[in-house]
Amino acid sequence: MAERGTIFERYRGVFFVGRRLDNSKEEAMAAVKAAGEGAVLARRAAGALRNIPNMPRCPQIVISAEHGISLPGIKVIRSRILPPEDIASVHGIPATSGERTLLDLAEVFR
Predict the structure, then answer these.
(1) Pairing relation of β-strands 40-41 and 87-90?
(2) Are 27 and 45 in contact (CB under 8 A)?
(3) What pLDDT digit, counting tens, does each position of 26-45 carry?
(4) Secondary structure, 3-state, the chain
(5) Taking a C-beta distance cutoff of 8 angstroms, is the pair 10, 19 a contact?
């Protein structure tokens, strides 16, 4: 299928069928899927998903601190604390809650 151009691998184990990625929401979901169980979109990527102006569209995810993964092309942020109330679904994509996103961005931009 890859040779015929009907399946495209975006990240290891994450594929799109029929076409390449064509928007930032698909890229965001691909990054979360590549990181695995418990991963959520975070910081600038969560801000971009929520239409906060001037957010670069680079994939950033947060996972629990015990995960030891590294993903080329994705900024992986490890957190010892990610309670359920800090997680939301935005356009069907797991992401940090609005409050957590704003707190994370305040830390990034200080």
Answers:
(1) unpaired
(2) no
(3) 889 999 999 988 899 999 99
(4) CCCCCCEEEEECCEEEECCCCCCHHHHHHHHHHHHCCCCEECHHHHHHHCCCCCCCCCCEEEEECCCCCCCCCCEEEEECCCCHHHEEEECCEEEECHHHHHHHHHHHCC
(5) no
Q: Which of 85, 78, 94 is nearest to 37 (CA)?
A: 94
Q: How many beta carbons lie within 10 A of that of residue 51, not counting itself?
A: 8
User: Distance (Å, rounded) from C-alpha 23 to C-alpha 21?
Assistant: 6
Exposed / middle / buried, residue 23 (Cβ in 10 Å: 0-12, 13-18, 19+): exposed
Q: Give 80's pLDDT tier (boundaries 50, 70, 90).
A: confident
